[in-house]
Amino acid sequence: MRVTEVDKARLDDYFLLLGKLLPNSSDEKWMRVTSVSFDEDTGNYYTNWSQVEKPDGNTTIAQLTDTKLPTELFPTIEGEDSILFIEVGVPHDPVVSTLGFTNLEWTPRQVVRPRFTAKVVCNDCDELPAEGDPGEEPPVPGDPGEEPPLPDDS
Questions:
Q1: CA–CA separation, 121 vs 116, rounded Å?
Q2: What is the pTM for the complete model shown?
């Protein structure tokens, strides 16, 4: 079957499949699929759509916006073509945590090109937040330019 568009129901099914393939994994696993294009005039990558499948209450994983794209992982995109950037996060509690290993998150990433269309359309994916909106992932503590937390006066 030649797929040229997806919807949230199909992405939900892929997330359910992930759970079936990893039955003993954490309930906190997540999946994010992002359609990315390249503007040859400006030399910038941009997000066409991004959809996150995650358990309720997980607020640390958000849609990818243009400024969050890991462009170093992307192949050359020409003309009207696009890629799908697929990420999965599976938290893992190490068996040997007594040796100093802490909780880990296995996060494989895959970039694929649509075969039968220039761009896969997602008809009912969530709106992308505007840059700087609270919908973006929170900054990682210690990122350059981040203000240190203020001491609690209580």
A1: 12
A2: 0.70
